[in-house]
Each structure stands twice: as structure tokens, then as C-alpha cells.
Design goal:
Number of domains: 2
Strand content: under 5%
Number of helices: 10
CATH class of the largest domain: Mainly Alpha
Helix content: over 70%
Number of strands: 0
CATH architecture of the largest domain: Alpha Horseshoe
CATH topology of the largest domain: Serine Threonine Protein Phosphatase 5, Tetratricopeptide repeat
Largest sheet: none
Distance between the termini: 36 Å
Order of helices and strands: HHHHHHHHHH
């Protein structure tokens, strides 16, 4: 998997390097890359966005946001990838960026939420054998984020998505998922989305899962 990923990354890097190098600020660099990872429907589009984010992180290696979004992109790609081993490889890459972001802002609400997202991504690869370990990590980090800011919509978004895939007999199901997703939706409408440097992802995906609950 790694040679395949590197080949794609290098190809995209050549095409995108001028754009990234000429960008004046971290924020200007991140906006189009985040929009691409947030809207892409294909693996190719997501890989292209992830490669661009890696270039940005290489240029801004000590910035929280660059490392944060590089980790976020790998997590989202892991949900699209079909092969379990490749999914874990993407998450291994994500962990490296996450650890750097965590060093920069160890007790930030968004750091805890990103940790929960990565735990959920690991869990989704093999829920049968990983539910205990990564389920506990997921809950622990969302609870930590909630202590800092109970109005962060990503807390309830991630809970809702997790419940959507959890059998009803274990406390999941559409009804319980919908309650969390609806709460997230209300909070998304009032979140600060003025700058990409302040994470505000999840609203689009939340709406998609709300629609699934209504089906």
C-alpha cells in the first residue's frame, strides 16, 4: 500500500506544488484542500486533497491546523477505502500527524474530537474485535471535549454516526442516532466558521446521516 500511496502523492505533489508554495498564508493554503476533501465523492479526489494537505504540512510543519487536517483527511479516506489493511495504513499515517497536533494543543476540544474520530475509524475497520478498546477511547475523548465545550456540534455528530452503526440491542439504532444528529444540526448552525484555522467540519456529513435516518 505504501508504494501505491507514495506514487499517487508524488504525482499530485508535482501538479500542486506551485499553488502551495505561492500561497501567502496557511489559511489560504488550507481552504481549497479542505473543501476538496469535504466534497470529493471519489477516492482519487480524496487522495489528491490528502496529498495537497501533506504538502501544506511540509511547508507549515509546526502549525496545529496543518497537522490536524492532514490527520483528518487520512481518517476520512479510511472510511472510503474497502480493504481493511489499507484502511489501517491510512490511519497509521493519520496518527503521525495527530500526535504532532496533540503536542501543539494537547488539551484542546478539537484535539479530543479528532482523537475520537480516529478511534471510531479504527473501530469501523473491525468492530467485532475492536469495540472495547476503541469504543472506550472514543467515549473518553468525546467526554473530555464535552467538559471543555458542551456546545461543540462535532461531539453529537460523532455520537450520532456511531449510534447509527450500533445495533439497537446495544443502545444504538436510528432513533437514538437521530436524536444526537439533530442536536448536532442545531449547534452547527451557530458554530464559528469564520476561519479554516478553527475546525468546523461535519455539517455536511451530519445532514447526510440525518437523511439516512429518515429513510
Amino acid at each position: 500500500m505504501r508504494p501505491f500511496f507514495i506514487k499517487i502523492t508524488l504525482t499530485v505533489a508535482i501538479a500542486l506544488s506551485i499553488t502551495v508554495v505561492n500561497a501567502q498564508t496557511l489559511e489560504e493554503s488550507l481552504v481549497p484542500a479542505f473543501q476538496q476533501i469535504d466534497t470529493s465523492k471519489t477516492m482519487g479526489g480524496m487522495m489528491s486533497a490528502a496529498a495537497k494537505l501533506d504538502l501544506i504540512t511540509n511547508k507549515f510543519p509546526n502549525e496545529y491546523a496543518s497537522n490536524y487536517y492532514s490527520a483528518y483527511a487520512k481518517a476520512m479516506i479510511s472510511y472510503v477505502e474497502k480493504d481493511a489493511k489499507r484502511r489501517d495504513l491510512f490511519l497509521d499515517m493519520a496518527d503521525k500527524f495527530f500526535l504532532k497536533a496533540q503536542q501543539i494543543k494537547p488539551n484542546d476540544q478539537e484535539t479530543y474530537i479528532l482523537a475520537a474520530l480516529l478511534a471510531n475509524a479504527r473501530l469501523s475497520v473491525d468492530g467485532g474485535s475492536r469495540w472495547k478498546k476503541f469504543g472506550e477511547i472514543f467515549d473518553k475523548n468525546l467526554n473530555a471535549a464535552k467538559e471543555i465545550n458542551p456546545n461543540n456540534p462535532r461531539i453529537y455528530h460523532l455520537k450520532g454516526v456511531a449510534l447509527f452503526f450500533t445495533p439497537k440491542m446495544f443502545g444504538g439504532g436510528v432513533k437514538n442516532a437521530s436524536e444526537q444528529l439533530e442536536k448536532a444540526s442545531l449547534l452547527f448552525s451557530s458554530q464559528d466558521s469564520s476561519s479554516i484555522l478553527i475546525p468546523h467540519w461535519g455539517e455536511k456529513r451530519n445532514a447526510e446521516f440525518m437523511a439516512k435516518c429518515d429513510e
